[in-house]
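Retry 2 of 3 after timeout on previous attempt. Resubmitting structure tokens to design endpoint.
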């Protein structure tokens, strides 16, 4: 596999996607401050490499929910993949499986749970859930469990949709070709920024709902959208097996704390009681090693996988994930870290503001 230039890949994806599809992929809320700062925050952190360590062999395997995986890099849940490639989530699942990466399928997928499961290979798949109607949720949970999905990821940080001027400038027109096929009646998928949703409560998840979900789901429950240590503790006390440190890619609430800034507090608050994962703005192997060192068991990558999907389908997704893994291997060797288990907080220092 050739090295992937993410800047060039993003530009090629923009050229291939319809303007509304690219706007939907890239959109952040309001002034897109958080969307931009997510990436900047990882780059601002500095590595403190070790020397005189045996790094002849680099081991990137990770134990995630008790399962050994080839890579600590996962595919974040993003919806409506047929906006980006005609094979949609089927191609994403194939690309993730080829890299041995866990793929988190979104509720708003344009391929069925069962069809995606058929392309799992040896890689794990998780199912992301928006919880509103419990009867609908129960049907999705049971289908995911029956199809062999390994975990349930409930998104907790979006009681209402945000607003995106970028998406408003290139509105996504509802189409018969783009449907939420796993929901009853396979409704036409509407843009999350559609004005018809303005001011309406969409997914008002409460702690009571989380407890119900933990009791109802045969799969371990992971809570996505955690940015505070106290919230992380409450989630685990309610039965969650893990949390995902996430600000939804800056897509709905702008000017939130970055995930790089939130991760250490959450990892410290949970200690060994639950696993912690993180998403948001990771574009380099250096970013991933910093996240692992600060307490993440694994990281999730969103927009770059969609760029790869748009340009080369399943092969593009695989290339993005493999490129990041190879960058992680090189970064670990240069930092004196032979295995993921050796990535500890002492590897990371805060930003030197004098650095360019």
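Retry 2 succeeded. Sequence:
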């Amino acid at each position: 596999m050739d090295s992937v230039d993410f800047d060039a890949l993003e530009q090629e994806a923009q050229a291939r996607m319809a303007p509304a599809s690219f706007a939907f992929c890239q959109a952040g809320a309001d002034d897109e401050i958080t969307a931009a700062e997510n990436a900047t925050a990882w780059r601002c952190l500095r590595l403190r490499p070790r020397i005189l360590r045996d790094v002849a062999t680099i081991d990137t395997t990770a134990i995630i929910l008790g399962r050994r995986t080839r890579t600590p890099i996962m595919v974040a849940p993003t919806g409506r993949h047929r906006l980006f490639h005609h094979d949609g989530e089927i191609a994403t699942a194939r690309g993730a499986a080829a890299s041995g990466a866990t793929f988190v399928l979104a509720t708003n997928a344009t391929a069925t749970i069962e069809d995606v499961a058929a392309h799992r290979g040896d890689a794990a798949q998780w199912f992301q859930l928006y919880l509103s109607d419990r009867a609908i949720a129960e049907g999705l949970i049971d289908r995911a469990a029956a199809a062999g999905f390994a975990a349930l990821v409930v998104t907790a940080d979006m009681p209402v949709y945000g607003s995106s001027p970028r998406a408003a400038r290139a509105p996504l027109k509802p189409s018969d070709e783009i449907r939420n096929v796993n929901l009853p009646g396979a409704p036409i998928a509407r843009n999350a920024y559609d004005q018809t949703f303005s001011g309406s409560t969409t997914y008002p998840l409460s702690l009571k709902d989380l407890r119900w979900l933990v009791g109802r789901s045969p799969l371990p429950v992971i809570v996505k959208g955690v940015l505070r240590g106290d919230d992380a503790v409450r989630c685990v006390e309610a039965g969650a097996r893990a949390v995902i440190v996430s600000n939804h890619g800056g897509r709905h609430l702008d000017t939130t704390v970055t995930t790089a800034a939130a991760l250490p507090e959450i990892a410290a608050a949970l200690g060994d009681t639950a696993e912690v994962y993180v998403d948001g703005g990771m574009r380099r192997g250096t970013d991933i090693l910093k996240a692992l060192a600060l307490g993440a068991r694994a990281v999730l990558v969103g927009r770059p996988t969609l760029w790869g999907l748009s340009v080369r389908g399943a092969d593009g997704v695989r290339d993005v994930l493999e490129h990041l893994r190879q960058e992680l291997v090189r970064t670990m060797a240069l930092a004196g870290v032979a295995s993921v288990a050796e990535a500890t907080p002492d590897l990371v220092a805060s930003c030197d503001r004098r650095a360019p």
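Attempt log closed. The chain is about 40% helix and 15% strand.
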